[in-house]
Task: structure prediction
Amino acid sequence: MKFTDLGLPESLILALKKSDYDEPTPVQQSTIPLIQEGKDVMATSQTGTGKTAGFVLPMLEILMSNDSKQRKIRGLIITPTRELAAQVHASIEKYGRYTELKSTVVFGGVNINPQKKTLRQGVDVLVASPGRLLDLHGQQAVDLRHVEYFVLDEADRMLDMGFIHDIRRVCALLPKKRQTLMFSATFSPEIRALAKAMLFKPVEVDMAPRNSTIDLVKQVVHPVDKKKKADLLAYLIGSQRWEQVIVFTRTKHGANKLAKQLDKAGINAAAIHGNKSQGARTKALHQFKDGKLTALVATDIAARGIDIRSLGHVVNYDLPNVPEDYVHRIGRTGRAGSTGDAVSLVCADEIKQLRDIERLIRRDLARVEVEGFEPEHQLPATKTRQTRQPSKGSESQGRNRQRSGGRAHDENKSKNRVGNTQGTNRRRRRRGARKAAVSA
Ligand code: AMP
Result:
């Protein structure tokens, strides 16, 4: 199928050509015609599959077709994080570059006055984080009475306890007659029920088995004691020459500490989390996207929707307490058809989180010990676990090692174990570990 088969206007087709998109992705093929028909849609789609264009393209088409040029907010998109809001807005600007529609983005953590000024000048599309949107409304700086098209991106996050009250307040400000769309990589059963109640006769689009992880992402667990995690991470980055990695920690303090430890080990790293100023968050993300940082250490704030092209590695330094967050985290890699590795450093007291994740994604993750980092406190085996070849996890290790030093991994020598089976690798590890000199 071609984009022209979807009946999109010329100006959008031209912008897609400029973006080098040849054909619509499966989620776009499914959602665009439904949205064009005016239906409410609830779409579950694996992250990185092009869902943003799936709702932005038909929105632009609809708004262009009845453009009165009054510049009232007719399209409203709400996202849970500032970074995602900025990214969705960038997509709107990219796809809408040959239209006359005006758009802007508002979120907290930055001066509200320039946002008020832009809104006063009039926009057709507003991308917003919920808190700042309500602040602006409280200051009579935003009028939502003309919204025709309302999107909740990362809807499961938007409807959980942290945001649901804000979302209900926003919904109360919108016209009853509108088209509402909800997109997310995951929907828990409770959120699914809540979401349905906010939609009118929604059509469900389920592009993936529920809460499944992307097949293109190779997933592996390295059992390791908590105190050795930082050393192991520095070792993996250094010895396997990872170009770039996002590392997820559970706490903001943990993110700061780890970024410092990596920096000390000679690995360019920055932390990004909710306590950082918006300026610092934007700067770190830009530096990472520009390839100036090797490691971005983040709390789950960065797990949602952020699109970093050809990111090869995601590391779960701590496992998330909410298993769905695992799916979002690892979805930062393996995007738009490319492959990626998701590596989880798991200590014995994280076994419950690991089991919850395995239950959610309906598969057991290969445990692969790294020589020199074998845990003193063993990770209990999963009850449901099937016997697995270690190759799933070690495949990627082998590939990386081949790239870095031309040595393939010898699986026969170390079943369920990677690294250091050869003298050179052992020496390299010691060198790496010395250089790392990071004590957790
Ligand atoms: P998303 O899931 O919306 O975050 O998109 C993931 C990535 O896929 C982004 O880098 C998009 O620019 C890219 N993308 C979206 N649609 C297409 C398409 N039809 N062809 C190629 N790449 C696409």
About this structure: Residues 21, 24-25, 28, 48-53, 307, 309, 335-336 surround adenosine monophosphate (CB under 6 Å). Confidence is low (pLDDT under 50) at residues 384-440.
